[in-house]
Amino acid sequence: MHTGLLALLPVALIACSGNVEAPGADNATMQGAATQGAANVPAGAKPFTETVIADFDSPWAVAFLPDRRMLVSEKDGRMLMLSADGRTRRVIATLPVDSAGQGALMDIVPAPGFAQNKQVYFSYSAAGDGGKGVVLARGVLADDRLRQIEALFRAGPLVEGNGHYSGRIAFSPDGKYLFFTAGDRQKFTPAQDKQATLGKVLRLTLDGKPAPANPLAAQGFNPAVWSYGHRNLLGLAFDAQGNLWEQEMGPKGGDEVNLILPGRNYGWPNASNGSHYDGRDIPDHKPGDGYEPPKVSWNPVISPGGLMIYAGNRFPQWKGDAFIGGLSSTSLVRVDLNGTAASKGDQWDMGARIRDVAEGPDGAIYVLEDGDDGSQGRLIRLDPQS
User: Which N-terminal residues, if any, form the signal peptide (predicted)?
Assistant: First the structure.
């Protein structure tokens, strides 16, 4: 249940982590719960201060509106709108979510033309005939309610199980197309299946239809497919140069950051820098294997949550870099981006699983704790150390 808004005070926490994934739970949920206790962090340990803005019940994503109000999704299907200071909130929609396992009301992204059309795109997991799947939907924000809600796209086939929905949303820089991630649903082979949209990055029109001239349609693929061979894609973002970056959870090891290129096969489940959970080997990515390798990978895992590419001025030293929420690693992870190259940067212990990370209109970095272990999931603003 909600515990109310927390005081706007600096916060620091400590953490623990593990390395287990089970059916129905991602390596975010199953790799150890964060220790929720106050701790003194030595001065200078982090190059930012932390201020708690609000707390939630198992939040999944945060997005900012042009007037600095915030939208937050919660696992059980509630979409909240908060004032710019986080002190007041209201439920603007409750969606028919199947929230078992990794199911949730997931990503929220205002439309490119939000200032005029007030449209908000979002994703959620839902049950249907024959199983469950991830849904892309859209609504219109009017009178502080989300109205005219419509489902635009459903990834398929529907299958049994509660894992690897993915459901991240990114708009092309020109605002004409929507990119959407659909996980492999812990079924492995759909990621390589030409007709399935599972285990794929999809390029859609703003109405949820396959975008014209997608690169693999002529080869017999589902016409929505942009890239394939993915596992559980929990981050998707364009950089200032128009490059599309994606991060996904590997199996036992092998979490990835990928540069998404049209028509490429990223290898899952035939190639991975990790291994199966029962100890069976998976061939590593290697030159000439026909699969696009990750730009960065982790072993041990970080369990990547949301992905943000920083474009603000409050942290000028990090402009253009990627930031990833770490779930089992209870961390905020920075990745240096340099054109189409990437390398590991910093990793800061945040003391709780981080589900999402976003840049605010003020140029501050906001992290959203997962809160799926019975703890509060808090929204925390990061500001430069004075």
Answer: 1-22
